[in-house]
Design a protein that fits this description.
By secondary structure, the chain is an alpha+beta fold. About 15% of the residues lie in helices and about 30% in strands.
Length: about 250
């Protein structure tokens, strides 16, 4: 199931009111915790009961919200972004993901003692390696897929997290970030003899959002994300279901 790239939009976008004032980043909202479903980039070696009777290949995506497989690429509105940080321990078996020895749920402070994550924590001998005792960020995007009306979480982690840097730069030039559609797909990656898939996100400036109802939904989702403590397995330390590609 692929989503076609949006064609060039007409001037109808001028009627869309995104409802954002100059102080929209300062909104203060409160709500109970909410568990958010996620979209998982599938790698080789995945063994999930949900996929037993499904013909899938590495580079496809699994949407836990709809229990559907997404083949190829898809488009979504990026609503908000969270950062988490993990520090890995030893890796005695290269086929097993490193144990998480320290974790940060905000990308700023370590959860175990509240101490700040330092530049020394992030230092490594090779920026392309995931080393023991080195802090690595993961980027979690709250998105709404085209033709849906509910948010899901999409995470750039492992070898994919560097691709999030260019996506973040492109998103920083938008206000709001859901002003146009973003296309997500997988690309090939390799570390030594280990081949895997990396997640890519490309903002499409010409694929503008022209649906007023979707604009309102995106704004309300963004407001809620600022007041809610989102929960998802992707926002925690437990990622044993994901194959290793350190």
């Amino acid at each position: 199931m692929s989503t076609a790239v949006t064609k060039k939009q007409s001037s109808a976008v001028s009627v869309v009111d995104f409802g954002l004032g100059d102080d929209y980043q300062g909104l203060e909202l409160q709500s109970k915790d909410v568990v958010i479903p996620h979209i998982q980039l599938l790698q080789k070696g995945v063994e999930w009961e949900e996929l037993n009777d499904v013909a899938w290949k590495p580079g496809d995506f699994y949407n836990s919200a709809t229990d559907e497989l997404i083949k190829g690429s898809f488009e979504a509105l990026v609503i908000d972004m969270r950062v988490t940080t993990k520090m890995g321990g030893p890796q005695p078996d290269p086929k097993v993901r490193r144990e998480t020895i320290r974790f940060s749920s905000d990308g700023i402070h370590w959860d175990d003692d509240g101490s700040p994550i330092t530049a020394a924590d992030r230092e490594g001998k090779n920026p392309h390696d995931f080393l023991e005792n080195v802090a690595i960020d993961s980027y979690h995007y709250i998105v709404i897929l085209k033709d849906t009306d509910f948010p899901v979480l999409l995470t750039f982690k492992g070898a994919s997290y560097r691709n999030a840097k260019s996506l973040n730069f492109a998103l920083s030039r938008l206000q709001p970030t859901w002003k146009c559609w973003t296309k997500f797909y997988a690309e090939d990656g390799q570390s030594g003899d280990n081949k895997f898939k990396k997640l890519v996100g490309k903002v499409q400036p010409k694929a503008l959002l022209t649906d007023q109802d979707m604009a309102v939904l995106a704004l309300e989702t963004w407001k809620a994300s600022k007041g809610q403590r989102l929960k998802s397995k992707e926002l925690g330390t437990d990622d044993d279901e994901s194959p290793s590609y350190d």
